[in-house]
Design a protein that fits this description.
single chain; 2 domains; six-stranded mixed beta sheet; 11 helices; globular
Length: 315
């Protein structure tokens, strides 16, 4: 399986290296990674089509190269499981995990993943929300209205697209999900869920949002905001019928063997980009953020516990 993952990474990596031209002259923190390894490999989860993810983050490549002194390459995957396996297999030097995907790594290989930073929302919150959406013309305005109807999760390893709603909804409904919804599917990604709802493939589905900002803009960040900015979603066409409590933002994560100096430089670089290259910063974050803060594994203890409980219940 790992060989298949490596092959897939090679196909869609769209590697951009050889010290690309900087959009802004980088004067932030640096670390000479060339003394440790010859390149820096960055992974992204598949929340949208691979080509769009890679293009949106292309501006980051020259900053990584300036900060670390080695060529940088970026990769994405056809599902979260592929990203997790690539990271566990030592084929990535950093990946922006969701909380659930990070938890899967921590459970499978304790101590291997080292979170180094997470984003701060414009309000100062260090989290986001899972929300359920339906078409506005569907006459569905609550989870109760979804009785007997077709519901969609996203990727099985997504925090907001599967883990949190799969745990919270049964508690709120007072019964298992499959006893309330008529059919339950996995769309495979956040974008596929939203498009599936718009196209009538699902009556409702869950995705992620910052939960702050203007509804008409799809909030300040998240899947809805991304699709509004791409021109493929009009917020007047959907309604939000459920929201979770605040979920811890996912971490930029490196292997625990990655040099501490490199992690410090990466956090400083991310802060520098936020302050000096707003366009690149917002491309990378898929919307507006207030800034970046350091985090470690303890920030995700609660999510890891929920993930473990879910896995135990599934046995």
């Amino acid at each position: 399986m790992l060989k298949k993952i490596i092959y897939f990474v090679g196909i869609i990596g769209l590697t951009i290296s050889s010290f690309s031209v900087l959009a802004k002259e980088y004067t932030g923190p640096k670390f000479d990674l060339s003394q440790v390894q010859p390149e820096f490999r960055i992974g992204y989860l598949p929340d949208e089509p691979a080509a769009e993810t890679l293009a949106r983050n292309e501006c980051m490549i020259p900053y990584y190269e300036a900060a670390l002194g080695v060529p940088a390459k970026q990769f994405t995957f056809n599902d979260n499981a592929g990203a997790i396996e690539a990271f566990l297999g030592g084929n990535l030097d950093m990946i922006w995990f969701g909380s659930s995907a990070y938890s899967s790594v921590e459970i499978e290989k304790p101590g291997w993943a080292a979170p180094i930073m997470t984003r701060v929302q414009p309000t100062g919150d260090i989290g986001y929300y899972s929300v359920m959406i339906a078409r506005k013309d569907s006459d569905i305005s609550s989870v109760a209205d979804m009785a007997g109807k077709h519901f969609a999760f996203g990727d099985p390893d997504s925090t907001s697209g599967t883990l949190v709603p799969s745990v919270v909804l049964p508690e709120e409904l007072g019964k298992p999900i499959d006893q309330h919804f008529g059919q339950v599917s996995f769309s495979g990604s956040h974008e596929a869920t939203v498009l599936g709802v718009l196209n009538g493939d699902y009556d409702a589905g869950v995705t992620w949002v910052s939960g702050v900002g203007e509804w008409s803009e799809g909030y300040t960040s998240g899947q809805l905001n991304t699709m509004v900015r791409k021109g493929v979603l009009n917020m007047d066409d959907i309604v939000q019928i459920w929201s979770s409590a605040l979920i811890p933002n996912g971490p930029h994560t490196v292997p625990s063997t990655f040099p501490t100096g490199g992690s410090v430089a990466l956090l400083g670089m991310q802060k520098w980009i936020h302050e000096n290259d707003k366009e690149c910063s917002e491309n990378h974050t898929n919307g507006e953020v207030k800034g970046w803060i350091p985090v470690d594994s303890s920030f995700y203890d609660a999510i890891v516990a929920v993930k473990k409980a879910q896995l135990e219940a599934a046995k």
